[in-house]
Design brief:
CATH class: Alpha Beta
Number of domains: 1
Shape: globular
Number of strands: 6
Strand content: 5-15%
Radius of gyration: 17 Å
């Protein structure tokens, strides 16, 4: 048996980013085929730390349904709640705390948090909402409460953001890469935004299951980069 670390596929991500939600759904779906061969690692990149702004509702509500059209397995629903999240940092803290109970636990909560915001209209900036999501996920709630309240949670999130900016030159989300910094791309039709309005959209490369082969190719790249022993 190899003593090398398992190959990893990284997604630098933000919780109010609909494109990160699509990416997470696709990576989760294909990861089952690569269980025990490639790890997906979500790396924290809160855009409000980089840009100094809260979640931009006016822009997101334009992107919301464009994203929904591209991935049927990612449920979207109108955000009807009046308490729009003014920060997503508590969501990062919560997923970091969940990851203390195991990387698979963290990945599961990561996707649940995204679905809660985009598909269920829940304010993921509120600690009580995140606690409810953790309970629904079956976490050890005593350990979760302890870890999410620890100063280590926010410190870890901010350090991850710093590493992304300084070491890997991450500037937006989602940014997919291999641990050596090689950039990877999923077929997503991103919009062009000017003056906070969508003015154009790139051609739609694929929809739903039609994007599976492109997602599998990311995992294949991770295996290839790890060398023949892991790829076998």
């Amino acid at each position: 048996m190899s003593t090398h670390a398992m190959p990893e596929l990284w997604e630098w991500a933000e919780y109010y980013c609909p494109w990160c939600y699509i990416t997470a759904v696709r990576l989760h779906r294909v990861q089952q085929e690569y269980a025990g061969r490639v790890n997906v690692r979500v790396r924290f990149f809160p855009l409000e730390v980089l840009r100094g702004d809260p979640a931009p509702r006016d822009i997101l509500e334009q992107e919301w349904w464009l994203a929904a059209l591209q991935e049927p397995d990612a449920p979207f629903a109108p955000y009807g709640a009046g308490d729009w999240p003014t920060t997503t940092l508590p969501a990062f803290d919560a997923v970091w705390a969940a990851s203390r109970q195991g990387p698979g636990v963290g990945l599961d909560l990561d996707l649940r948090v995204r679905r809660a915001f985009f598909g269920e209209g829940r304010n993921i900036g509120r600690p009580d909402v995140l606690f409810d999501i953790a309970r629904e996920a079956g976490l050890d709630l005593r350990a979760f409460e302890r870890d999410v309240a620890s100063p280590a949670a926010r410190a870890a999130v901010l350090e991850e953001s710093r590493i992304g900016r300084k070491r890997f030159q991450v500037r937006g989300t989602p940014t997919l890469m291999l641990p050596d910094g090689t950039r990877l791309y999923l077929p997503i039709a991103f919009p062009t935004i000017r003056n906070r309005r969508i003015v154009a959209v790139r051609p739609l490369p694929c929809i739903g299951e039609g994007c599976l082969d492109a997602t599998r190719a990311l995992f294949a790249r991770a295996l290839e980069a790890a060398g023949p022993e892991e790829a076998a």
